Amino acid sequence: MPNNTLIFIGRSGAGKGTQIKLLTEKLKEKTGKEVLYIEAGARFREFMQSETYTSSLAKEIQNQGGLQPSFLSIWMWSDLLVKNMKGDEHVIFDGTPRRMSEAKVLESALKYYGHEKPRVVFISVGSDWAKEKLTLRGRADDTSSSIDKRMDWYEKDVAGAIEYMKSNPYYEYHEVNGEQTIEAVHEEICKALAL
After folding, report:
1. Are 6 and 33 in contact, with CB atoms under 8 Å apart?
2. Nearest Cα to 76, choosing from 38, 50, 104?
3. d(CA 136, CA 130)
4. Could you give the 3-state DSSP secondary structure of residue 155?
5. pTM, entire model
6. Exposed, middle or buried, 112 (CB in 10 Å: 0-12/13-18/19+)?
């Protein structure tokens, strides 16, 4: 089986991380290859624990539920690629890109590494569903106002990046219904990707 390049995208609270974990195990089991997991959100949270001026600004944005600037998001995931790519692994992106500008830089990175037909998995959920899941998750940055802001920037920024990948023949685009049980969503993803 060839290496898979997968981009999981959708609203905050759509269950991307959960589905990626399940799919990672399946890919490892089926192919015996490693999976490079690129998740900028966790890296941001780690970065914000540092004591730099940049991290303090990022922390303010995070606490207000804002969308981090493109240059910082791109640096987070591109640094992970540069330091960890070996060339013989599956690569899974979690929640990247979040803006059109990021989508174009990500595409240039994938082409640089010779990745043909990256597969986009859009986990589709409504805002009410996502809000409920984020509230139940109970992470420190999941306050009511920050959740509302994330829903706003999803519509304003992320939806455009998704549309760009959906209409771009470079990508293989799959939309799955995220408003199902975890197992049903996983099954739908595996079927869509023929895994």
Report:
1. no
2. 38
3. 10
4. helix
5. 0.92
6. exposed
Class at the top of the CATH hierarchy for domain 5-192: alpha beta
Please check the confidence at residue 90 and state whether its pLDDT lies above 90: yes
Among residues 50, 41, 26, 100, which one has the least CA distance to residue 72? Answer: 41
- Answer yes or no: are the C-beta atoms of 153 and 66 closer than 8 Å: yes
- Return all residues near 23 (Cβ < 8 A) that are at least 6 apart: 6, 92, 186, 189, 190, 195
pLDDT in tens, 75-88: 999 999 999 999 99
User: What is the domain partition of the chain in residue ranges?
Assistant: 5-192
Token output for 76? 């987070």
pLDDT for 117-152, tens place per residue?
Answer: 999 999 999 999 999 999 888 787 788 888 888 899
Angle between helices 40-47 and 70-84 (to 10 degrees): 100
